[in-house]
Design goal:
Strand content: under 5%
Number of domains: 1
Order of helices and strands: HHHHHHH
Amino acid sequence: MDRSLGPKGDSSPTERERLLLERMPERLARRGRWEDLRRLLSNFTFLTDKVALFGPQALIEDCERSDDPSLRVLELALRQAAHILQDAPGQLPSHVHNLLFLFGGDDEPTRHLLAQAR
């Protein structure tokens, strides 16, 4: 995805983009493509678009598909902020940044997400 959708973006998703956001994590997990799943869930554009269109619970479920420790931290951050993100998905960057900064590890995916959330 090369453009941001949802509250900050000024574009509505195409049906194809909507399907990719909705189904890609499940497909990657089902095929055992764990590194691709980790990369996808470490892409801040994907995260913000998914939360804007489907809410935080859908993204939490995507994180549950992996046993990657860095995604567990992201899942925790999303759970902590889910009640806020449900009504204000544009708050995702600040909540993810703050919670990853406080509780995140020093691994590459966490550093990457922190840099994107700034």
